[in-house]
Amino acid sequence: MAVLSTLSNLHLPSWLHITLLPSLSSNFPPSVSENITPLILSTTAAALIAYAFFGPRSKNPTVPGPYELPIVGNFLQAYPYIKNQQFQELTAQLVEKYGNIVMLKLFSRQIVITRDPDVAKRVLNPSSSDPEFTRPDNSKIFVIPYMLFALGTDDLWKRHRKFLQPAFGPSHLRFALDASNEVMDELCRIWEGQISAKPDGKLRTNARDVMTSVTMDIIGKVAFSYDFKSVLHLTSHNAPQHSIDTILKTISNRFAVPPFLWSLFDLADSSSPVKKAREENAALLKDVIRRKREGAAGTIGKDERKFDLLDRLLAENEASGSGGEGKFGDEEILGEVWGFFMAGHETTSHTLTFIILELCRNPHILTKLEDEIETVLGGRDAEVTWDGVHQLKYLEMVIKETQRLHAVVGGIGRESTRDVDVLGHRIEKGTRVNVAIRLLQRDSRYWDEPLVFKPERWENGFVPRAGTYLPFGDGVHNCIGQKMALLETKITIVKLLQKFSFTMLPNQGLSIRTSVTSGLAHGLVVDVELRK
């Protein structure tokens, strides 16, 4: 009680009294809350005494930001947002209060957040000869190593990127067209049967869950020549997706919580939820790899033009020796398979869900899009061909506007390679700088009526200001599969609108959940009917 009294009498910011003193323990996991309050209070009291003698020690002292406690910095302020997967909301509040550059300190980690488009270009697309910013190696944070988008800007990343790039070339895009049509035909067949069996002709479903199954099946066919059969089992528990959600949340929290506290917050590899999710995913994907090896009886001698992503990885492994001795060892293969399995369906499923949301909200846009599809393709039963899908210009505008308004990747971080000046502030070497993509894409300085869904803003070849539209990132680390993702999105939407109409249930919570990606926390419940 003496510690509480001492803290209550200190002139601390209001958020600290609200967050720390009355309900601190409720912000932590059950395994932590019972013992954490005395620990934090005593640590804070000791730190405040030291603070009175030694004062602040910031690497970037001129960058504005919220009040920092000694040792923990802004961690106590940030953790409730992190825990509830609402970190984008905290970012928005900080930028609104402090401007285009703001610093958040989480223990010893200092994160500079920027909403400036010129800085965004500078951070994400620096000079290749002498870059000011680079992507550090985040392999330990990403739970499973050797994923392309977790590797730092080094020789290992360059080797992976160069080797995998052909798996997303023109011939593979045509394969993605076929796979997307195949999966969507299966979904349409299932839905038509289910709707016909309903007395009122309505099928109530969660669009987010369905789109997750669709994109999981497509990435399986395209990248691994494997059928996960997720669409066939829409009504059953999606175990792979549940474990993916656990790992994504773990990754997001690891960026904020220092490694020495990972065990305390159930974030360590040995922690039960992380270990279980990792083992479940590894078992599934090792089976995918095993089946590919057995079915192909090796890839040497196979037409390389027909290689999918997994074929390429296995061929490189086999050509240089078995047992992980080739350029791509077994752990590297597993890491890349897991990375593309996760990223290849997670981001696209969120985008598809947001498109359905906006079409339900804006019936005039839906009607215009339906008319374009029927006119260009030649009817509701028309085949979705390569040439046809690329003529759907209004569909492209709808997708672009969805990606602008609903950024699935809300921010991207890089690390300064040396001391640099950013917006008049000295940023020390090794500081993480996060580009607030979601905020840039909703900034009224660069977008007319930024919170209004207006596909027409993309008419006549409109090109936004550089650094204000970054759905696939920028620079050398831009999304390797963006063309494939866009093609998959187009075909899925066309197939849905050819056959069905959607009505969004009113008064459902549409809050955003942020981990590595951002999507609707509870999905989107809709009634699906056959188009009249």
Automatic annotation (TrEMBL):
Molecular function terms, GO-annotated: heme binding; iron ion binding; monooxygenase activity; oxidoreductase activity, acting on paired donors, with incorporation or reduction of molecular oxygen
Protein residues bound to heme: C479
UniProt key word Iron: yes
Name the record gives this protein: Cytochrome P450
PROSITE patterns: CYTOCHROME_P450
UniProt entry keywords in alphabetical sequence: Heme, Iron, Metal-binding, Monooxygenase, Oxidoreductase
InterPro entries with a match to the protein in the record: Cyt_P450, Cyt_P450_CS, Cyt_P450_E_grp-I, Cyt_P450_sf
Record-linked SUPFAM superfamilies: Cytochrome P450
Pfam families reported in the protein's UniProt record: p450 (PF00067)
Cofactor(s) recorded in Swiss-Prot or TrEMBL: heme
